[in-house]
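Task 17 of the worksheet. Students: predict the tertiary structure of the chain below and write it out as structure tokens. Keep your answer in the requested format; marks are given for formatting as well as content.
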Amino acid sequence: MSDAPTDDYEARLRAWAGRELLERRPGPDPVNVPMIRHWVEAMADDNPIYLDDDAARANGRDGVVAPASMIQAWVMRGYAASVRADEDPAGPDELTALLAEGGYTSVVATDSELEFHRELVPGDHVSVEETVESISPEKQTALGAGRFVSTVKTYRDASGEIVATQKWRLLRFRPAGKPAPKALRPRPAINPDNAFWFDAAREHRLVIQRCADCKSLRHPPGPCCPQCGSFDWDTVEAQGEGHVHSYVVNHHPRHPAFEYPLVVALIELTEGTRLITNMTGVAPEDVEVGMPVVLDWIDPDPDLSLPAFRPAAAKER
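Model answer:
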């Protein structure tokens, strides 16, 4: 179904006001002391009228009574009936199915207002029935677009007398879409010959490999000097200035880690070596061959730092 509710859908929801949602259904067990004992221990409720007949009589009762807050516990179907399909062959109720049709597939309880008519005592057998009071128009909530479904549960004893009522409100909502995590920039291929360069970049240092024998500079890094063949080398730190030797504006193919159009430039450093980087602080149409540039840094995530270059004029401003 479309996110925008249709008039027909709204009418079908409104038609539920006043309808029976749950036929009268007895709880699986009568009120009993063992269950009361488990409840008060779990709730750390030490009121003696729940387990001690003498204390209950001293407080005007005929004997022990059940905590009022246990009213729902006496009609719960139990774990198996709640989760096993063969216990509920009809599947979800009609209203739940109608709400799911509108995308309201998630649920959270928001309000519960109880009114007690008399206390329950061991031997009482409680039943519950439920009617729909109202279904709200669609509301925008922090959880997503949803509708508040208000119902009234009526609890009766074995003779049919009302022992408690409960106004119950749920928010049935359409889960708000979560933004997809930003894609990571593709990882560089790091090996023993170039690891030093990426290590320096993480410290925001742009270094150039230098032959230890003939002192010639080279980039990209490599194990052997192309000028003299020496395997000995060290590094120098670049001044961070140069100019655009060439560039392209990339539109396709697109990768989710980048914003397009993407300027990819071949930068010639004042030291004479060249490297391929992105341009920052400039529109693609303003990039020119020969444009003076200065060093900038891109930190796409905590594990990666890469040099980039921006127009030298931007530094002056």
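Marker's comment: Helices lie at 7-14, 33-43, 53-58, 79-83, 94-101, 195-202, 312-316. Residues 33-43 form the longest helix (11 residues).
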